[in-house]
Model the fold of this input.
Amino acid sequence: MSNNFGDFQIGVYFDAVNGVTSRYPFDAEAVQRKAAEALPDWVYRYVSAASGDGRTQQENIDAYKRYGIIPRMMLSPPERDLSIDLFGKHLDSPIFMPPIGLVGLCSPDFQGDIAAARASAATGVPFSLSTFSQAPMEEVIKHTGDTPGFYQLYLPNDRELAAGLIHRAEASGYSGLLVTVDSWSLGYRPMDLEHGNFPQFRGFCMQNYYSDENFTKHLEKAPHEDQPAALRHYAKIFQHPLTWEDLRWIRTQTKLPIAVKGIQHPDDARLAIDNGADVIYVTNHGGRQANSGISTLELLPGVAAYPEGSRENQVGRIPYPADRDR
Ligand SMILES: Cc1cc2nc3c(=O)[nH]c(=O)nc-3n(C[C@H](O)[C@H](O)[C@H](O)COP(=O)(O)O)c2cc1C
Done:
C-alpha cells in the first residue's frame, strides 16, 4: 500500500466516472448508520452501549473538538511518512485496530475476527484479537498476512488457563500482548441490561476458552454438548481483580512485549513500567466500563509527560486534569 493513504480517493472518483459507486461509508456518521442497518439489533446494542448515562463515551468524542491542527506549508515531501515503531515492529501508519470483543459477530457469517484480520493484511494496520473471539486465536492470526497482530488478554483467575492463553498467543505468532486492566468486573450498561443482552452468556465469542484444554478439562462434556456448564465455569474464572503482582507474573510467562491497557493516571503508568510493561495503553475503554471518567485525549498529555526518575520526587509536579479545577 502507498504511504499516501488518502490516495484511495482517486480510485473512488475514477470508479464513479465508470459508473461504479462506492459501497463504503466515508465518515463516522455513515459508518454508524450502515452498522445500525446491517447488524442484528442485539449486536448493535452491545457494540454501541456505554456505561451509565454515557457521559464518558460522549466526553471522548467531544474532547476532539477542543483540539486542532495548525498545518505547515511548502514542506511536505511527495511521499508522506506516517510510520512508527511499536512492539519492535515498523508500521506504515500510527494506528492499529483495538481489541473489540464481539467483532466476531459484526460480519454476516459471524466470523468478524477473521474478516478484521484480513482487513489488517490488506491495509498493514495491525489487528488486535480480543480474548472474546468467534474463532480461536491460532485460526485468526493465519489471516493477518505480513501485518503484525496483537493478542488482548483478560487475565482469568486460573493461572494454568492464563499461562495457556499467553503461551498460545506467543506460539501462534502474535507480536504483542495487550493486558487489559480496567475490566475485571462488568461495566454497568443500561442499554444491554434493559434487554438482558450479554452475548457471551449465550455462548458467543468464547472460542479462545473453548479451544483451551486448561478450560475444557474442568468440564464433564465438551462445551458444545453442555453449553450451560461451560458458561458456569467461565463465570467462575472471569472476574479477577488485578494487582501489580499479576503483571509481574505475566512478565515471567512471555518474551512478547506487553502493553498495559486501561491506564489513565501517570502514577499507574510508572507502576506499570516498573512492574514489567513495555507500552502504556492510555484508554478509558471508550466509556463502556466506567462512567464519569475524563476523556482519554485529555488524559494522554499527563501520562506522556510523566518524567523519568523516582515517583517520590515527581508526584505532584505533573499538570493533570483530574487534579485541576475543571
Ligand atoms: C463493542 C466493544 C467491545 C470491546 N471489547 C474489548 C475487549 O474485548 N477487550 C478490550 O481490551 N477492550 C475492548 N473494548 C475497548 C476498545 O478496545 C477500546 O479501548 C475502546 O473502543 C476505546 O477506544 P480507545 O481505547 O482508542 O480510546 C471494546 C470496545 C467496544 C466498543
Remarks:
- The chain has two domains: 9-38, 40-66+82-323.
- The first strand starts at residue 84 and ends at 86.
